[in-house]
Hints:
The protein has helices at 17-51, 56-66, 74-85, 97-107, 120-127, 130-133, 148-154, 167-177, 189-194, 217-220, and strands at 2-8, 109-115, 138-141, 157-164, 181-186, 204-206. With 223 residues, it is α/β, with parallel strands linked by helices. The chain has two domains: 2-16 and 93-220, 3-Layer(aba) Sandwich (Rossmann fold); 18-89, GTP Cyclohydrolase I, Chain A, domain 1 (Orthogonal Bundle), CATH 1.10.286. The protein is elongated. It starts with a strand and ends with a helix.
Amino acid sequence: MHELVFFIDVDNTLIHNDHVKENLDQHLQAEIGETLTRRFWEIYEQVRIEQSVVNIPATLQRLRAETPESTLDTQTYQHVHSIFDNYPFTRELYPQVLETLRYLRTLGLPVIVSDGDQYFQAEKIVNSNLADAVEGRVLIYIHKQQHLAEIQQAYPAEHYTMIDDKLQILVDSKAILGKKLTTVFVKQGKYAQDQIHTNFSPTISVEHIGDLQSFSKEQFLQS
């Protein structure tokens, strides 16, 4: 059993996902034009609401199914698919991400625990070199806070630290794990700016993921 295991989020915690979406929008508009790009993001939101998670493959499949060949030919659709399959995610890592993961490894066991679809999210984590940075310890769920029991079974520890940009996930997880969990709120991305929980204070709050390199093991063991 480990003394300390870190559960680390991906989107807007390790990867600047807001910037990724802006870039993807620009690429899509160049490839399929404004109207189809707008329709892609509408479907994207519909799928996200229906499945409670972003699912790029499902979004692309629906766009293909509803769009006639005369408007979106097969070759162009393949180019669109390639935009997502070959996106340079290493460029979208926040500053000091890999250095921070290496630092956390000296204190405990870093594990990426991400929300997302099993295909695109996994590709994102591998292509950004994040999977290698945590030696392949990657778990992907729709709602990770609903799987804390099995996550603990996979990585048993005396204490856990959860690092996330979504305050609600920290709230939910703290309610389940109690004193066994230290919560770390990374105030990056759109969700971090929008959320206010007057009855909840994270154990640690930082402006940037790289700031965690200044914290000691003892601080990550606080509850």
